[in-house]
Every structure is written in C-alpha cells, then in structure tokens.
Amino acid sequence: MEKYYLTTAIDYVNGAPHIGHAYEKILSDIITRHYTQRCDDVYMLTGTDEHGIKIQKTAASKGITPKELCDENSQKFKDAWKALDINYSQFIRTTDEEHEKVVQHIFEKLLEKGDIYKNSYEGLYCTGCECFLNPKDLTEDGLCPDHMKKPEVVKEENYFFKLTKYKDAIIKHIKDHPDFILPEFRANEVLNQLEDIQDISVSRAKSNVQWGIDVLSDPEQSIYVWIDALSNYITALGYDTENASEKFKKYWPCDVHVIGKDILKFHSIYWPAFLMALDLPLPKHIFAHGWITIDESKMSKSLGNVISPTSVLETFNLEYPDAFRYYMASSAPCGRDGNYSDNDFKEKVNAHLANSMGNLLNRTLSMLVKYFDGEVKPEFKAENPLAKKALGTIQIVKNHFDNFEISEAVLAINSLVDMTNKYVQDNAPWTLAKEEKMTECGQVLVNVLDIMCIISALIYPYCPNIAANMAKQLSFDLKTKLDDLTADNIKCGKLIEKEDIKPVFLRVDSELADKSAKKQ
User: Fold this and answer.
1) Is 39 in the active site?
2) 147 catalytic, yes or no?
3) Is residue 441 annotated as part of the catalytic site, yes or no?
4) Is 492 a catalytic residue?
5) Is residue 103 a contact partner of residue 240, using CB atoms and an 8 Å limit?
6) CA–centroid distance for 183 within its chain
7) 181-182 vs 200-201, strand pairing mode
8) Counting CB atoms within 10 angstroms of each CB, which of 255, 343, 372, 503 has the fewest?
9) Catalytic residue at 34?
10) Confidence band (pLDDT; 50, 70, 90) for 208?
C-alpha cells in the first residue's frame, strides 16, 4: 500500500459541534491511525462547510457577518478535534480563497462542456437540507423527514447540472464495484434513488443567497452548496481544471470518504457524476456510518439532549479522550446506529479498559517485579501457546478495517485480551512461584507480556495515550508496522522497576479518576 487518503464530511458551521460530529471524526481518526500501522504515507482531510442560506440567516440574527460566524464556529470544531486527539493532516474551510477560486473554475469547465445549463425552476426547498425535495420524499404532513419542517416553494432561474446524463454510468459503477458503497446494504438504497433521479440545481439566485461563491460568468448567481462543498476533497489536494498539483496526483483517488448516512445520496450520486464530468477517477470507497442517539432518543435541541464532544471528558474528569474514543468507536456495528448513555459509558470502559486490559498488564508486571525484580531471564523465553491466536487476531483486525468494521475489530481485540486473561488464570503464576517452579512462572509472565505488546499495537488507533503508556512499560516500539509484529517482543534483561508500574487506565468511578462524582 503506497498511500492512504481518507476524508471526512466537512461540518456545517451553523452551530457548534456535537457528539454526532465527534463520532464521525473519531471513526475517521481511528481508521487513519490503523493505516499508519500498514502504510508510510497516510493523509486525512477534514474541515468545515461555510456557505449557504442558513449561515446567512444565523449571522444576521446574531448581528454579525457570515464570515465572522464561520470563523467563530470553525474554530470550535478545531478545538473539539484537538481535545479528542483527532490527528488530521489538513483542515479545509470552504471560505479558503484557493478553494473558492477552483470551485469557480470547475463550474465554468462544466458549463463550457455543456454539463451545466440555465433553466427556470419551481420546487420545494428545505433550508435544513440545503436542497430541493421531491413531493414523494416528504412525510404525510408535507414535512421534510429529516428536519420535520415544511419546505418553502422556491421559483428561480438557476443553473442545473445534467445528472441524468451520468445515471447509467453511476449504476454500472455501483454494480461493478460491490465495495464502492459500504456497508453493502446502503448500495441498494442508492440504486433505488437513482431510478427517478433528475437534473439538479447547482446555483441559487444572488438575490436569495448572497453568502456563496459567485458564478464567474454570471455574478447574479451563487454556486450551490453541494458543488461547492463536495469539491473540497480535490481542491484540498491542489486540483485545478488546468493542471493538477503533485499532491493531487499522489493522493487521488481517495481511498475512502467517511460520511453520515444522511448525506449518502450526495456523495454516491452527485459527487461521482461531478467527477465523471471532470474526467476524474472515482473514490475507492464511500463508508456511510449511522447516527448516535442519546439514551435511545434522537438528539434534539427541544429535548435538551445535544451533547458537546468534550462534555463527557469534563463530566468524568478524563485526562485523555481515549475512553470516550473507545466507547464511541465500539457503540455500533458497521453502518448501524449507536447510542450513548453515561451509565453504559462507565460500565463499558471500566470493564474493558480498566478491569480487563489494564489490570492484566498491571498485575503481570507486578508479578514480574515481585518474583524476579522486574528482570526477564533467557530461560523465560519459550514457545508461546498464545502466539497463534495473537498473530491471527492481527489479520482479523486488518480484515475488519478493510471493511470499515471498527466496532467488530474491537470485539476481536477484546477476545484476545479475554483469552490472555484466561491463560493467566489457568496457569496461575502465583501458584507456580509458591511451588518454586520459577522458570515456568517466568515463562507464563513473559508469554503474557509478549501478547500485551501486540494488544497495545492493536488498541493504539482507538486509545493512543493508553497504548503509549502500555508500550512504555513494556519497552515496546509502538511504531512497529502490523505486518512486522511477532509474538516475541519482550527483550531479556531488566524490564521495569516497581515505581514505574502504573495503571494505564483508572476506573472512572474510582477515587482518583472520578473526582467530579465525589464533588456532587
């Protein structure tokens, strides 16, 4: 694998980030970190979507300019991702001057090619979706099914893109590439949507939408949000219609677009059509994740259950975001909806990160210090009965990531942790020490520590700080590529001193960890 290019959806800056935004960015960061363990050149793009009527109206209601609103809220997204250890390569804003310029060139190229034409149109426009809706898409009460608001009737002379021209080619691509849209059950939804697809509006009259990118050849029109927003995936790499940068040539086509299921139509129909019109290759995969509910209820301002990405860290006084990252990543099977609740969060991270994985490392190292003064002797290096399972788990995890089954990969890692815990219980090194079978005791401990090195590597994408703490206590190089991992990682000699053994994750309800609970 020479390179890996991952993009997230760019978040609309009409408001502050919430836990749903965080879910996508955490998944994306975990995928990116995993591929850094398999590939030397990995690039992750994220950013913010900053044009459109909603921005214009919200800014006006606050008495500030649209750009001031965008600057304020875009920074909130950056701050949230920093707090969650989202390690992106580039953050693009659609108000970036270079992006706007290239979007104008793309529009003119498609206009010149005849793929964009001007026409009068009357339709039902949902401000929340930033798109026109078909009457058949509405609820029985005539409301937008996503925003539960009645769309307004809009009559304008706009520019349209010949989406119907590319209908058959898109259908063929989806059928010829069953892993183009993942999970696969989403592909059927897209094929159904393609049955009665129509040409789409790609501009709005400037009289109605001032906050947008001007059409170069017709300044009375603003380039419509989707041709603007979707183009970020290539403008960020230095694409232009006249020539492409070396960066673009290096990374395009994208390996995966990570998006929410609600914008799948735009990424799997509109975007491929735009790319086909530009004679550019399509992305390899589009991964549509589900939504996150709060205590089994959909997030809603009226319900007051919208959670900010960092509030969980504050509530549980977490020094690192690892526990939250782990919980969110394991909250839903591939592409399905997940749920967040405080109680489930505490139970899951305590059971998996503190009691099972953390305690396994802590007590094994403690026994090594107690019985052998923290030293690994040559005779402790023996055939490891856990090796086959551990090395097999690496391949299982890789396979899951190749299909974007992030929570399923967690289950495989936990299975390895559980098996290693059972190995300790079955072989009882404390009993071996009591019986003065010291070589056998040392072999059991080192076998476990060898596997803990592999576990630290596998858990790293989810919990980078915990993994780093584990690797430090094991004197293990966390930069080791997955394909180079073996079951022989612990070196002979002094491994650790008693004072250097520290819990890698404190229970969130412990006296040390859950300080906020004790204050209540």
Assistant:
1) no
2) yes
3) no
4) no
5) no
6) 15
7) unpaired
8) 343
9) no
10) confident
